[in-house]
Amino acid sequence: MDMDQWLEIRRRVLREGVSKRQILRETGMHWETLQKILTHPYPPGYQRRQRPPKPKIDPYRDRIAQILEADKLVHRKQRHTAKRIWERLQDEGFTGGYTIVKDAVRELKRTSQEVFMPLTQPPGEAQVDFGHALVKMNGVLRKICFFVMALPYSDAFFIRAYERECTETFWDGHVRAFAFFGGVPRRITYDNSKIAIARIIGPRLRELTEGFLQLVSHYLFRYHFCLVRRANEKGLVEGTVKYGRLNFLVPVPEVQDFEELNALLDQRCRADLQRRLRGQRQSKEKLLAEEQMRFLPLPFTAFEACRTRPGRVNSELLVRFDDNDYSVPMEYAYQDVVVKGDTDHVKICRFQDVIAVHRRCWGREQQIFDPLHYLPLLERKPHSLAFARPLAGWILPGCFEVLQRRMEWEMDQGRRQYVQVLRLLERYSLPQLTSAVQKALQHRIHTKDGIEQFLPGSQPWRQTTFPLGGGKHLRLVQIAQADVRQYGALLGCGGTR
């Protein structure tokens, strides 16, 4: 019966006074059907008063529930499937089919799920987590991780991509997130990451790592760690990781480097602040402005998000950091140094002086060379020039190869002279030296001193002297102008005899 018939019968009986017997004669319906129409404003639909009995599976429902409960204590990859439960029940005397077992398993899993208490989200709190995604970087599809800090009150969040999850990226993510939000949340919730936790002592007791304590000591926020396998305690950031992956990293971004990717993520995080939450009258940006009043102020001194390790330079002018070797200048061979590594660079220091800076290598067991560090050694051992590994990937303009061939052809020590030309890069940039070499080749000048005349800031050749055996100090000698009268006085005194 459709709704129009239902409405017509109710109107005739309840408003127009038509008798029930008249309706029964006209429609031929049952008395109980008419009573239902008059009782309910619209068809109530069919409703079971109790679950229909299932004599084959009902005796085994408790056994299935027992197996599913035991599965919660083992790894998810070794839990029972519905097919495996059916096979075990068959061994215990079950004679039914697989379908009813599968339906019973689905129903028990659905009804036994944990329920949660809705909580209020006070301003000034944050949650932190890492996620992973695929990115096409410089034409290569690769896996990256991204740091996420989310604020439950305003639902504002900050996302930044990194090479991998480690102490340096953990620090850097916090520093940049605090700057993005304009303050430090009073309380931050974490999972049980090894970056922050050295050992789990009890349900809520943790032995913290030195790196995490350094971060907390600088910003002085309170921290909270979730119970083991209870990610729902930071459910907002768990959802934000998924939201950021699906909305910011789908389709797979095609970028040149992390700088371009993070610029894209920062732009989208700021654009998301204009979004209004369901049930809120204000945008995220306005809620964040309210929440900033509850933040801790940023410290006057910035947190140095770099890991510091002592090291010693070996015989190949290399010092190890994070399973990679980085070069230093020759004069620091066999000396103790301090290595500082952040997300972008590795700085090698001797006391207070920075003696070398390299781009951070995120690979393993790699050697990162600066060719300039090995030029003084090559000057002493010029025959190793063709086999020097630090220079293997050093691409110089073609004029340098021409210069090397001419110098080796014209001079006995041409290779050493060529290394001395390369050492000019210690004082001049590569474009400046390239221009000087090109000019020297045009004038058929193939010496280091001749090339140096074409470099900016050098003295004109007429104002220089040729250095003989380390006599560069002769440049400072000043010869007075000759006086003819002195020669005449000498002749008057008989100086000719």
From TrEMBL:
Protein name: IS21 family transposase
Record field: transmembrane: none
Keywords: DNA recombination, DNA-binding, Transposition
Keyword DNA-binding: yes
Domain Integrase catalytic: 118-292
Family classification: Belongs to the transposase IS21/IS408/IS1162 family.
UniProt lineage: Bacteria, Pseudomonadati, Planctomycetota, Phycisphaerae, Sedimentisphaerales
Residue ranges constituting the HTH IS21-type domain according to the UniProt record: 5-68
One of the record's GO molecular function terms: DNA binding
Domain of life, source organism: Bacteria
NCBIfam families for this protein: transpos_IS21
GO biological process terms on file: DNA integration; DNA recombination; transposition
InterPro entries per UniProt: HTH_IS21_transposase_type (IPR017894), Integrase_cat-core (IPR001584), IstA-like_C (IPR054353)
PANTHER family (UniProt xref): INTEGRASE PROTEIN, TRANSPOSASE RV3428C-RELATED
